[in-house]
Design brief:
By secondary structure, the chain is of the alpha/beta class. The chain has a single domain (3-111), classed as 3-Layer(aba) Sandwich (Rossmann fold). The chain contains three helices and three strands; from the N terminus they run ααβαββ. The protein has helices at residues 3-15, 38-47, 58-67; strands at 53-56, 73-76, 97-99. A three-stranded parallel beta sheet has the order 1-2-3, with helices on one face. α3 (58-67) links the parallel β1 (53-56) and β2. α2 (38-47) packs across α3. The longest helix has 13 residues, at 3-15. The two termini are 18 Å apart.
């Protein structure tokens, strides 16, 4: 997630009653526009065994999708998740990868937990 996006994300969590480092832990990883870092960073996050991982962008979501089939991945800012082969359809995305809606995150029941490395 970009710095602006992560700030909005954290503010939204605060509005919902979550408190970083109190009721929720968030571990951030940044590829700094270097696509070669995506797979190692995805593996690193998966090794932390979070409840959920959130990301922005199709390349980031694909790296996470390749790194895990067990940990739910919620992604933002992907123009066409179907053409990007991240999901099969919007109503039933399948696997453990879900798009967030434009009106806010809508996490399927099976993804319970919440976004970005929450434990």
């Amino acid at each position: 997630m970009g710095e602006y996006t992560i700030d909005i994300f954290k503010a939204s969590l605060r509005d919902l009653g979550w408190r970083v480092n109190e009721t929720i832990d968030i571990d951030e990883r940044w590829a700094d526009a270097d696509a070669s870092r995506l797979a190692p960073l995805a593996s690193e996050l998966v090794q932390l065994r979070p409840d959920v991982i959130a990301c922005t962008g199709a390349s980031e979501a694909k790296a996470l999708q390749s790194a895990t089939r067990e940990i739910p991945v919620v992604f933002l800012q992907v123009a066409d998740p179907i053409s990007s082969h991240l999901v099969r359809e919007y109503l039933s995305p399948g696997r453990e990868t879900s798009p967030a809606s434009r009106r806010g995150l809508r996490v399927r029941p099976e993804t319970s937990g919440w976004i970005a490395e929450f434990s």
